Amino acid sequence: MYKLSGTIKVINPTVQVSEKFSKREFVVTDSASMYPQEIMFQSTQDKCGMLDGFQHGEQVEVSFNLRGREWTSPQGEVKYFNTLEAWRIERVGQSNGQSMPQGGPSAMSLDPIATPAASSTMDMADDDLPF
Fold this sequence. Notes:
Layout: E1 2-11, E2 15-18, E3 21-30, E4 37-44, E5 59-72, E6 78-91, H1 116-125
Antiparallel strand pairs: 1-3, 1-5, 2-3, 3-4, 5-6
């Protein structure tokens, strides 16, 4: 799981791709570096509605998963695609009483979230036992 903070630039309408699949794309501007990046996210199925309360110009934090897949063209050429699958979007400063991180809205850009397995490994490193 990853998080990115930035400003909403575009919110597209929901597109019904097939009878059983719908998606909605949106773009967030990440201004953490000298050259701002326009990052496109996708939400699918029941997550398409989470964007309804947001508008252009709002500062947000997007929680997302990185997805990748392989595709073979009819000519046999293999290509790879990545998707940033958003599953939560929150206004900056309104998520569980947390304030904006030091350094502005993009200070947490693409930081993976620590998992319980990672934290238990770190706890074991502090152990004085030699085995």
